[in-house]
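Example record

One chain of 312 residues, shown exactly as stored in the release files.
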Amino acid sequence: MGSSGLIEAFERRFLAARPLPSFPWRTVLHPLCVKHPPSVKYTRCFLSELIKKHEATHTEPLDELYEALAEILSAEESTQGHRSYLLPSGNSISLCESTAIISQGTTGLVTWDAALYLAEWAIENPEAFTNRRVLELGSGAGFTGLAICKMCSPTAYIFSDCHSQVLQQLKGNILLNGFLLNPDSTAPLQPSVSALVSPKPIVMAVQLDWEQVTTKQLSVFQPDVIIAADVLYDPEIILSLIGVLQKLSACQADQKPPEIYIAFTVRNPDTYQMFKMELSKVGIGWQKLPSHNQKMFPYEKHSEMVILRLLV
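Predicted structure tokens for this chain:
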């Protein structure tokens, strides 16, 4: 890997607040970082380690490093921080996320690896989303949907989650990335005059409880494509997920079933097998998509990641 590639790989990992193997300089003063700073804890640990590495070289001290560390040491700890991701287009996505994996009784306030994996597949296969209406189940922090909105040109994108705190953060992240929210989640989605002129899709963020939602309520959305990432972390959720997918398929006005893509990390093979077994019980087929070619975003692939296309 050349020096420019090394710096780019490092830059991507730093902006996404991921562990760093080495320490080039374009970090805390990166324009994205200045505008949307990572958590105080991450920045403090990074600068402390960077100074330690620099001091080990026995070269001239860099005042900028010590000034940056002094500034961050005096900053107040927060329960939130930003992660930023560079897109192949040169654009970027910045997300405000919780600094804890589990916060306020939910795991939906952080970005999980399968969301990054599904976004990579979407960017490599934009035709699956171009000029189509997309519904995402369990959107969490919103990364996958924002990547699709910025890179794949859907006509409409409906983010959804059941947890009110997740939904509040999700709406903030949508606005942070330059999209306007359609305020009416009960009206059928129709392209406005501005939507026909602008490349940006119609965007909604709705509260969706898979157990409580009715077919009538779901009939408003009429998605061409349904996606979800990392929603199979608990076996108890499987039946609820399958149930809402059946309702969505049943209420399509044109009787054409939507395309469905579910991405997840196989943390527990038994849960994966249970999901496939329950799909078979209700007559839903599935096809495992081949691994895609390019890794665009920083994540640790310790376990297998899978994208299933469901055949309803």
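Notes: Residues 40-56 form the longest helix (17 residues).
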